[in-house]
Structure formats: C-alpha cells, structure tokens
Amino acid sequence: MTDKKATIELGWNFDNSYTTLPKSFYSRLSPPPVHSPKLAILNESLAKSLGLNAEALQSTDAVAMLAGNEAPEGAMPIAQAYAGHQFGHFTMLGDGRALLLGEQITPSGERFDIQLKGSGRTPYSRGGDGRAALGPMLREYIISEAMHGLGIPTTRSLAVVTTGESIYRESELPGAILTRVAASHIRVGTFQFAARWCSIEDLRALADYTLQRHFPEIETEENRYLLLLKGVIKRQAELIAKWQLVGFIHGVMNTDNMAISGETIDYGPCAFMDTYDPATVFSSIDVQGRYAYGNQPYIAVWNLSRFAETLLPLLHENEAQAVKMAEDALGEFSKLYHSNWLRGMRAKLGLFNEEEQDEALIVGLLNMMKEHRADYTNTFRALTINQPEGTVLFGTSEFTEWHEQWKARLTRQPEDIEAVQQVMKNSNPAVIPRNHRVEEALEAAWKEGDNTVMERLLAVLSDPYAYTPEQVAYTTLPAESARPYQTFCGT
Ligand code: AMP
Ligand code: MG
C-alpha cells in the first residue's frame, strides 16, 4: 500500500524540510508495528482541508499508516530532539512517544506537520514506554477541536486509532495513537536544546528555519532574530489572552509545551474553568498552582524569557547589548497581552468604543463572579442573551447596580442593541467542553465503544458561538458532587 498510486489516492503529499536541519535536531526511526490498528475516530473535514481523501483514509492499509505500521510514500519519520523547563527545572526531553511522519503540503500550498503521538519508543523515551492510552488521546482530540471551534490557534487532531494492545498505567488500558496536525512542532524547548547542546551555527540554522517556516515576511531583514523574538512574543500575547477570555487552563505550560508558531500544543491535564477563580488549577501534579488560570500570562513571559536567552548570541555580538535588546522586547509582553485581553473583554460586554472606566467595569464583574462563585461561561452567556437570572450572583444588589452601570455604558456608543448582541454572541461561547461532558463522552467511547456521545459533543463544540437550541443542554453544570474536577497528564 505504500506504493505511489495508493499515496496519490490518499492524498499524502509529504515534504520533510525538518530533516535539512543539522542531524542533532532529530533521530530517524521507524516505530515498532502495533498489533491490530483500528480507526477510533477520523476528522473528515480536517482531512479534506489537508488534501486527504477521507474515505480512503478509513481503509485497513491507511489505518496501518496512522498507526505507524507503514510509512506513507514520501514520509521520512523522525523523532525531534528538544529540552525544556518542566515546572521550572531544566531537562533534556525530545519526542519520547511521538513520531513526525513529515510535512503535508496542502492543495493550497500550506505546510503542516503530521505527527503520530503514542507510536512507541524513541531515542528520547527515557524510562517511558512510548505509548498512549485511548482515553487521553480522545481527550486531546475533543479539546483541540473545541479550541479550533473557539477560534483559538491550536494543533489539530486528524485521527485516533486503537492499537489492539494494552498499556499499563495504574491499570491496564487500551493503547491508542493520535495523529496530530501542527503548523510545526518547534518549541521554546527546541531552542533551549540548541542553545545548550549545539553549536552557534546549529542554533542559527534552527532560527533561520523557524523564520522561513513561521515568519517568512522577516526572513531577510537584517535584525531578523530580534524580529523573531518580537514575533513570538506577540503571538503568545495574543494566544494567552484568548485562553484567558474563554477560561482555558493549559495545565502544564512547561517550555517544551510552548510552540513557536503560536498554536496551543500538548493537551495533557488541561481543562476549562467553570466557577470563576484565578487560582483555579485542575492538574493533579500542579500542587503549587504554578500553572493556575491567573498565572498563565506570567508563566508565558517566564517561558518567553527562556526563549530570549537562547537567542542572545544571535541578537548582538556584545552580550550586554543583546541582553538589553531581549529585555526591551520582553518588556512589551505585558502591554501586548493586556491590550489583547482588554479588547476581548470589551467585546464580551458588547463595547465597541473605548472609555477609560471600561476596565474597572470589567474587573468589577469578575470580582463579583469570584465572590459569588459564578460560572464563567454561563455568566457571559446570560448577559449575551439578556437573561441574568437564576444564580446567586444575579440575585445580589451589587450585581443590579453593576448591571445598571453596564446598560448606561452601552448607551454611550452609537451601535444599537442588535449590534451589541451580535458582538457578544461572537465573543462569548455558549458552550465549552465542560469537564463532565467530556468525561461522559470518553467513558462511552472507550469503555463501551459508543462514539455517538462524543460525536454529538464534537458537533456542538464545532460552532460554540451559534446560540442554537441544541446547545442549551450543554450549558448545564455538573452536580456539586462531581467537583472539584481533577485532570491527569495521561501519559
Ligand atoms: P508531555 O507531558 O506530553 O509534554 O511530555 C513530556 C515529555 O515526556 C516529552 O518528552 C514526552 O515525549 C515524554 N513522554 C511522555 N509520555 C511518555 C511515554 N509514555 N513514553 C515515553 N516518553 C513519554
Ligand atoms: Mg510536551
């Protein structure tokens, strides 16, 4: 099946530009075949947009490719080397359970990494088995597609296949492999690897490659490495603001999980906040709250500082000068983040023009939400559909006063109420992947082999701003007994 004809039928069109980098950046390998691969879910619309034949991808031979049993024609499988600060501690990492098949060039000329996650051991596996369990891979599929539906830059999920093999964690679990699609898998940690273990020429090669791939417009500029730093800072400021605006908590913002492209990557113990509280943490391993909701912008700038350090030798031959350039660039993050956040918050409240007091109005609402333990998504949804009722928050006199102020504020702009409602609908998702809904879908899928619950959830999440009657059932909160929710890395 790996002959040319089959590849053409499937639509694979691989390039392998990453292998033009110095050899220390990757290891060539073919993964160990798995026993009996079966398709658990396929993202047909994503397949089409990649130029793939969704129907042909369901054939036994194509599924074997998605399990890593056979490499598609033109693919040159590699595991990528990288390092990273994990919870603040620097370590050599690398793809310990992932395999980059190559880069799919789409019919419109875009380039996407096609990566198999859970495909087996690699030279970077350390003590791990290189495998993944079905539950966490389906979870990544659901949450990454939900993020895409929310309009947030993210890696995507093309498919999950089960391997027919068991893996062993605390219990015996069905093994699975996720096909992840990404603008690239270059991470802050990839630069940390280069700066720590490679020559300056190799570091420069990585920086030039990254520029070509993600910032082609500045590739030939004289100060291109400074522009690279600034570009990455800008994208992260935009990304983290988007996370905050929808209440997304990544859960494990280690530097190896921060993509240079500006996409959200590595869905492990992530979850969406329900009750508004900046201290919210779901991850069982984040005991100190390092990656709590309210800390995410600060962690982003910490990670970006680690990125800037790796670029110092490229920024200026004089180190003091290079440090100054990096510091000035990093100093922009908080301004960029804040303006993105404020713009997004204004839209969530239907504000088109700007008034000095807007931030106080926004913060006032958030403070009340925290005090009265209001659900983040549902509070904004209720304001959007003009039904602020039925919660403790909405029953307080404090809120009534705030509501009056907000209504008055809305009159101080030319836009009418329809325009206000439209911008609010476009900015406040009616549905998010609520933890109990995700769990329910996963249980049905992996314990009972019933995908229908997951498919319904995915359909609703694909257009979270639709405000349709079908969404209403997905806005209800879990029973108090289902909280507090805890997430696990899923490795
Ligand atoms: P993550 O938490 O998914 O970002 O992974 C952190 C590091 O651990 C990466 O280098 C992974 O490739 C590696 N890793 C995670 N799970 C496994 C596993 N089961 N086997 C080998 N390496 C793993
Ligand atoms: Mg990772």
UniProtKB/TrEMBL annotation:
Describe the family membership recorded for this protein in Swiss-Prot or TrEMBL: Belongs to the SELO family.
Official protein name in the record: Protein nucleotidyltransferase YdiU
Q: What does this protein do?
A: Nucleotidyltransferase involved in the post-translational modification of proteins. It can catalyze the addition of adenosine monophosphate (AMP) or uridine monophosphate (UMP) to a protein, resulting in modifications known as AMPylation and UMPylation.
Q: Which InterPro entries match?
A: SelO
Q: Which residues bind ATP?
A: 94, 96-97, 117, 129-130, 180, 187, 266
Q: Which reaction does this chain catalyze?
A: L-seryl-[protein] + ATP = 3-O-(5'-adenylyl)-L-seryl-[protein] + diphosphate; L-seryl-[protein] + UTP = O-(5'-uridylyl)-L-seryl-[protein] + diphosphate; L-tyrosyl-[protein] + ATP = O-(5'-adenylyl)-L-tyrosyl-[protein] + diphosphate; L-tyrosyl-[protein] + UTP = O-(5'-uridylyl)-L-tyrosyl-[protein] + diphosphate
The residues forming a coiled coil are none
Q: Give the residues the record marks as binding Mg(2+).
A: 257, 266
Name the UniProt key words of this record, in alphabetical order. ATP-binding, Magnesium, Manganese, Metal-binding, Nucleotide-binding, Nucleotidyltransferase, Transferase
Question: Which EC number(s) does UniProt give?
Answer: 2.7.7.-, 2.7.7.108
Question: Which cofactor names does the annotation list?
Answer: Mg(2+); Mn(2+)
The yes or no answer to whether the keyword Nucleotide-binding is present is yes
- Give the positions the UniProt entry annotates as the active site: 256 (proton acceptor)
The taxonomy runs: Bacteria, Bacillati, Bacillota, Bacilli, Bacillales
Enzyme superclass (EC): transferase
Note the superkingdom of the native organism.
Answer: Bacteria
